[in-house]
Amino acid sequence: VLPEQDHTIKKLLFIFWEIVPKRDAAGKLLTEMILVCDAYRKDLIHPNEFIRGSTLRFLCKVREPELLEPLMPSIRACLENKYSYVRRNAVLALYTIYRNFEFLVPDAPELIQNYLEGEQDPSCKRNAFIMLIHTDQQRALTFLQSCIDEIGTFGDILQLVIVELIYKVCQAKPTERAKFIRTVYNLLGSNSASVRYEAAGTLVTLSSTPTAVKAAAKCYVELIVHESDNNVKLVVLDKLTKLQQDHRHDLALQQELSMDVLRILASTDIEVRRKTLDFLMSLISLRNVKDVVSLLKKEVIKTYSNTDKDQNTKTYQQLLVKALHYK
Description:
Layout: H1 7-19, H2 32-44, H3 49-59, H4 65-68, H5 72-77, H6 84-100, H7 108-118, H8 122-135, H9 137-146, H10 156-172, H11 177-187, H12 193-206, H13 210-226, H14 230-246, H15 251-261, H16 270-281, H17 289-305, H18 311-324
Helix pairs in contact: 1-3, 3-6, 6-8, 7-8, 8-9, 8-10, 10-11, 10-12, 11-12, 12-13, 13-14, 13-15, 14-16, 16-18, 17-18
């Protein structure tokens, strides 16, 4: 069955070889596994990218170094394959083998760093960068610093990993924060909502200056306003609330937030509106009370002019009236 080329049978074979006992009662590798190892090697140089990639994924689960050792040259060669599916699985295989059996590929971090410099595919770069973060953080930082001005052009999957690295480095070495603040600022303008969310959270851990806090708060508000998923809106609203509580003595922030938060009331979800009004009440001060009341009155008028008086609209009216009588 081993030479079979059918993809479904290949998948079943990988499952079989993963669970079948590979050692005898004395703990020695079964002699039959030599033939199996040769079949792995042939699959690693197979012209079909699916078979190569699937074999590499399977090798991540192999825990017998005697089987892996003869395959190392073929696994390394897969880093240069023309198909990104093969290359990104080759990175995962090398990462797993290095983590479990470092002696089989002692130069893996250096190999992956060199590979990163020439790789263009976002998913391949992401896998390689994750490996460096967990195996040789200094090499990951070296790569990051070499392309720090190009981060805005990277795909979101790589940008997310970069934000993760910056957060970890700055938590461990606070003196490094100044190097990366501009990078995180720039990522607030990413096309990906996930990247902007993570960047905003990282920014306020790097800096507590009013400018940084306002930038993060504005980013959270924009995410809430433009995100269609109401559950996401509620999660980000919780983040915004915590940010405001941590900086409650910043009156300028309270003033600016109170006006921005009112935009969230355009949401049609009653829970989002309820939480927004509760948050808004915590921002009320003598400086902004007139503006807030004026806008809330407009919201009340808008609901009464709405011909579609469903239960949510009535509940929203009650919440607005309650907010207007807030003491």
